[in-house]
Specification:
Blueprint: E1 4-10, H1 15-19, H2 32-44, E2 52-55, H3 59-71, E3 80-82, H4 99-109, H5 115-119, H6 125-135, H7 144-164, E4 168-174, H8 176-186, E5 201-207, E6 210-218, H9 220-233
Parallel strand pairs: 1-4, 2-3, 2-4
Antiparallel strand pairs: 1-5, 5-6
Helix pairs in contact: 2-3, 2-9, 4-6, 7-8
Protein name: Phosphoglycerate mutase
Pfam families: His_Phos_1
InterPro entries: His_Pase_superF_clade-1, His_PPase_superfam, Phosphoglycerate_Mutase
Length: about 230
């Protein structure tokens, strides 16, 4: 049986990413630079064979996947599925606010003075989720256990199905906090991350019911795609 590997890409840079606004279940399209960055990633992944592709149901993830598949030699033939379980966290009434506002409120909810103080400690995703629920005046934010169930089940189901079908590589587009959260569920020693780059690739292998982390925040595919374009322009 071929090894099962998930290549999980953070979606391309969007309008809200550029404006530094909170973007969970709310959605904005990729910018021109965001689309170009994902095109580079797609070119960098050209030599990586994939059996199928998945993205979250958010527009920015779907747009990202279409660009990736458009640059891959087998992209037109890859089965592509949309799975809402791998979408970003819901931030409730904090959606659309400036990042600085949310990361200014959450430390105070958790009794820290600043965002820097928050991340200087061993803060957990469970504590952050609880703080978001506490700060959400609309009562829309997801409780920790609900996020944990949907994210874990979503990625595990993808991996299990691929393993049962003989293994191979799966191309996935998801979101920054969701990917970082998954990494922490696989390995509890992983820190809370809020800095996964747009277009970064995070590789996770799956075998006999166990995940293992192979790469985090990898931008080598993006850089390889840039070099391909540069050579073509010479």
């Amino acid at each position: 049986m071929t090894e099962t590997s998930l290549y999980i890409v953070r979606h391309g840079k969007t309008m809200f990413n550029t404006l530094e606004r909170v973007q969970g279940w709310c959605d904005t399209p990729l910018t021109r630079n965001g689309r170009q960055g994902i095109r580079y990633v797609g070119l960098g992944l050209q030599d990586t064979p994939f059996e199928e592709a998945y993205s979250s149901d958010s527009g920015r993830a779907i747009e990202t996947m279409r660009i990736l598949l458009g640059e891959h030699p087998e992209g037109k033939n890859l089965p592509y599925h949309v799975d809402p379980r791998i979408r970003e966290w819901c931030f409730g009434s904090l959606e659309g606010a400036y990042d600085a506002e949310m990361w200014g409120v959450l430390p105070r909810v958790l009794d820290f003075k600043t965002e820097d103080d928050l991340f200087a400690t061993e803060v957990t995703f469970e504590e952050i989720a609880r703080a978001i629920v506490g700060a959400d005046t609309a009562s829309w934010a997801e409780p920790y256990e609900k996020i944990k169930e949907r994210v874990w089940n979503g990625f595990e189901d993808i991996a299990q199905r691929r393993e049962k079908q003989g293994g191979g590589n799966v191309l996935i587009v998801s979101h920054g906090l969701t990917i970082a959260f998954l990494l922490s569920l696989i390995d509890t020693k992983q820190p809370v991350r809020a800095n996964l780059l747009n277009g970064s690739v995070n590789r996770i292998d799956y075998k006999d019911g166990e995940f293992s982390i192979r790469a985090i925040n990898d931008i080598s595919y993006l850089e390889r795609g840039k070099s391909i374009v540069s050579k073509d322009q010479e």
